[in-house]
Amino acid sequence: MGRSPEQRYGDIAVIFHWAIALLIIGLLIIGKYMTSLEENDPVRFVLTQWHKSFGITVLILSVLRLLWRFTHKPPTELPSIPTWQSRVASLVHGLLYVLMFALPITGWIMVSASPLNLDTVLFNVIPWPHLPPFATLENRADIAHSFHDYHEIAGTVLIVILLAHIGAALKHHFVDKDVTLTRMLPASGSRSFKRKLGALLFFVAAGTAGLSFYANSGNQAALLAAGDSEVSFIANVTGEPTPGIFSDTAVEALIDEANPSASTLVARVQTASLSSDNMQVAGSLPNTEWFDVQNYPEALFESSSVALSDDGSLQVTGNLTIKETTIEVSFPMTLSDEDGTRVARGEFSIDRREFSIGLDSQQSDDFVGYPVVVKFRFDIAAQSS
């Protein structure tokens, strides 16, 4: 069946349509797959970065497509299509346009509001900013969680709408045998279409190569190295929370905000530097049955993995060694700006029995509780990558 110029969409409209369609289908498949992976799976992190990159690409293409639609009249509707089908088609197209914007925008807000403040670098080349209002709100973690849900719901609705859209197009082609589908295909043997598509691909390739060269010439995302640090604890003594602090600590960390799985964290605590306002605690803990600071002067934590969590924090897993015992611990770590300084914070709970601490005089938890909360913070500063 032939297609006259007035029956088909223009070459640019066709390119926009299929580019956006293929990207959206790919994003939906990758999105469903990556969320099925464990949070600390490095493949999930890599897919998330590509998901963000192609999501922003869809947003940009959707804006351009909408502008093109306003300035270039689409083909007239086929007279053979019933009025009710035309109205349903208009509704579906409208929903598609809404979702084409809603999905990347909700994702953008989710990333912007994340307490982790992870930079978005499109295709690991082009820095992409956070949306300022959401990056500074006090309840940003709740906002990030809410928009994660909105993003997921919008994706599910889009799958349903896409299936209806594709089904209707196939029905027109195979049952009604009209040109509804074929007029959105490239004109057969069209040199004009091939030239425009080739020019577009060349522009994208050249732009990406140029930005990549620029990024690699000294504008790569900064890594963050550890500075001043502090480690404290809260134990339950006679039913009261009793804090203490280690004054001699050192943290060796390399935090890559663009690629958390490449981050590392090592913390050393000199146990003899312990102090507490509770004099009995301060006097007892250095002794042999507690920290035994004479024989074990240092406690050590070494990370084994760092992953990005859904709530925007970094999930750190590693080995904690106190005295002769090594136990694996896992905890969330957040990054934030405090008075112009980038600061990492986190906390986790340990059971003193696992490290044979205080088991001679305090075997029960009547006087000294078993769980002990360990808190830490350290400053981080930009370091050239």
Give descriptors for this structure.
385 residues, disordered N terminus, transmembrane, Lipocalin, alpha+beta, Lipid/polyisoprenoid-binding YceI-like domain-containing protein, Fumarate Reductase Cytochrome B subunit
Question: Your description of this structure?
Answer:
Residues 220-383 form the Lipid/polyisoprenoid-binding YceI-like domain. This is Lipid/polyisoprenoid-binding YceI-like domain-containing protein. It holds the Pfam family YceI. It is found in: Cell membrane. Helix 1 runs antiparallel to helix 2 (42-71), helix 2 (42-71) crosses helix 3 (83-113) and helix 3 runs antiparallel to helix 5 (140-176). The chain is elongated and about 90 Å long. It is built from 7 helices and 12 strands. The termini are far apart. It has 2 domains: 5-216, Up-down Bundle (Fumarate Reductase Cytochrome B subunit); 223-383, Lipocalin (Beta Barrel), CATH 2.40.128.110. With 385 residues, it is α+β, with helices and mostly antiparallel strands. Strand 1 and strand 2 (126-128) form a beta hairpin. It has an 8-stranded antiparallel barrel with strand order 3-5-6-8-9-10-11-12.
